[in-house]
Amino acid sequence: MEGYRQLGPASRPPARRPLIRCAATLLLLTCIALPGSGQSSNQPGAQTATIQQLFVKQQWQEIVRLAAGVPDRSAELDYYYGMALARLGLWDRASQALTAGYRLQPGDDRFPVELAGVAFKQKRYPEAAKWLRRALKLAPGDAYANDFLGSIYFLQGNTEAALKYWNRVGKPRIASISLQPEPQVNAALLDTAFAFSQASVLSLPDLWTTQARVRGLDIFPRYAFDLNAGPDDKFEVAFRGSERNGWGANKWQAAISTFRGVFQQTIYPEYFNLGHSAINIESLLRWDAQKRRFEGSVSGPWRQNAKQRYSVQMDLRNENWDIRPSFTGLAPLLGSANMRRQAVTAGINSFVSGRWDWSTGVELSHRDFRNVFPGSALTPALLAQGYQLKHLAQLNYDLWRLPEKRFLVRSGVSSQAGRIWSPASHSFLKLQGSLAARWLPQAQGDDYQIQETVRAGKTWGQVPFDELFMLGIEQDNSLWLRAHIGSRDGRKGSAPLGRNYILSNWELDKNLYSNGLLSLKLGPFLDTGKITDSSPGLGAPAWLWDSGVQAKVRVLGVGFAISYGKDLRSGNNAVYLTVGR
Length: 581
Hints:
Blueprint (H helix, E strand, L loop, with lengths): L19 H13 L11 H13 L3 H9 L6 H13 L3 H14 L5 H12 L3 H14 L4 H13 L3 H8 L6 E7 L7 H7 L10 H13 L5 E8 L4 E9 L8 H8 L7 E2 L2 E5 L4 E8 L4 E11 L6 E16 L11 E16 L5 E18 L12 E17 L4 E15 L4 E14 L8 E14 L7 E2 L16 E2 L2 E2 L4 E2 L1 E15 L3 E15 L11 E12 L2 E10 L5 E7 L2
Parallel strand pairs: 1-3
Antiparallel strand pairs: 2-3, 4-6, 5-6, 6-7, 7-8, 8-9, 9-10, 10-11, 11-12, 12-13, 13-14, 14-19, 15-18, 16-17, 19-20, 20-21, 21-22, 22-23
């Protein structure tokens, strides 16, 4: 619909379907309707030819008057009738006429395109996008429809979806790149994270790659790439990032970040962006008498390039374990021990593109066990002592990304192959796989967010005790069942342990409040899992189901989560506080 295809300065698609098509059709039908053809002036062909002549002359009122009097309009007549109504600003009637034509001729891409134009004029952007997607199923290479749909997503604030369709028509061209505010990290290093440059077309894969590498610098907890329209259909790309530097932006942030785990007898001294080179020093110090731990790591960009990142880590633990079937109530002791473990790990992570990355590393560790009560759970093979060498590898890949639906499915697979030198030396292998889905159901923003993660793990060989999987919520565990607390009276071992598992975590988050310094999210969760082991005191006999609600609080860039979970099998209730960055 030529009269309303100007979308404003933000995006102005080129004119499409000038009246050449209409004129050609008019010429053909006029020849058919010449005197002597046997067609009277009140027959459908003559009516259509007359209306086409009026369309060329832009006599919209007359078209509406004639077409409205036709009892059974053809698809072609509905098209001109709807177009004339739209020219007169009668949007609802235009939509009805064009919809009627679309039903008669669903394979004609003109109808969904013009219905999108009507919806756009009424500022019903989601409906306009729906019609344009239908049009592109019929004509995927239609330049106007791709440009138009990209413009709608741009107006909705969905930059990724806008790029998906704009890229098909060679847009958007970058006029300039700005950093707001100017980050403290070395400019040359940050430049290696950007996969696009000035005077080029910003492609969606390049944006995804840039996002992955900026995230990999591990100094921007929150960031965004904004497109700002400029003259001559060119755009400015503005990078806005909240940067971690030193101990924190101010003394309050430094204090909250360092002492965020003080109620769990843990502190987290951390220093970021050392020498403006994205080198981070992170540590954990826990003085809990039942599970003392020190962990420290140094990480940074490999050879001052954001494409790869190295890390070196030390982990020292002295933990008391009591193996019990529950964290509350009557729960007999199935085994206990004091475990001391020292480990050094070195690895590298490569951000190949926005869709996949890999990491590899090696770990050297030593463990020993004291004050052992084997019970029914702790076999001699599990309590193997001595040095262990382990290779670690992981690959992550985006299986499915739908920017227009704001839907992402990411897969991951990891392996750990180790050998322990004890009085009876042996090797083992651990494999894990994951599928994680995230959906933001609204056109823009993150007022609602739904996430689902499914993970599974399996072991081969004789794994030592500290290499077992655990399903439960605990400071040092990432496989959460949020109504199964992993420690009792401060001692670990009250959550199910085993060699093989499958776990699903579903949650919904709703933004309740945000003012820039403080944010609060609240939503339900559902966890289910199963864990097995050949040892009689380990594993769980049936599927475990936990449901509840959790609140996520963020203060000055530091995150906390408080969860209330209910074990749907036993009826046990659990309240737990976790801390993050």
